[in-house]
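Hi U.,

Before I forget, here's the chain from the pilot set. I'm dumping it here mostly so it's searchable later in email.
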Amino acid sequence: MKTPWWSAGLLLLAFAAGFLLYQAVIYVAGFLAAIAVPSSYFAWFGRGRAELAAAIVILTTMALPMAILFAGGTLASYRLLRELPPRPFMLAIVAGAVTCFVFRTASSMLYLSELPREVQPVPISDVLWQILLPPWWAVPSAVAPWLGLAFAGWLILRRARHEA
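Structure:
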């Protein structure tokens, strides 16, 4: 079976969708992070459990919406690009999302490296370390886009197996 000439363009669109979905999820997470949580919430947990309180807030107000947005965006993109087989589509979406993650990480590091030393809040190596291996209470927001993507991929591939 001959591959249609437009499938390369569809793969490029799927790659762009992955890139833009990751970018959109990060922006939405920024808006969600701005939600004001009353100080009484943290006081209820006590001083020793502030990280647990932060983890619960991050999970409920950031991570779940991020995962749902990424899964929904991936499923909508697949529906629009239905001409592509599921595996190449998912590979292109993942490649776009990983490219966006690398781009955002590199641009953040370049921006921080341009700041004068006295203005930098922490060393750049610490920032990179926290992006790649976040503290335990921030893990839900770090893995949320990837879990949403994995869930959408599971649904797409499961449906493709049942249709075959």
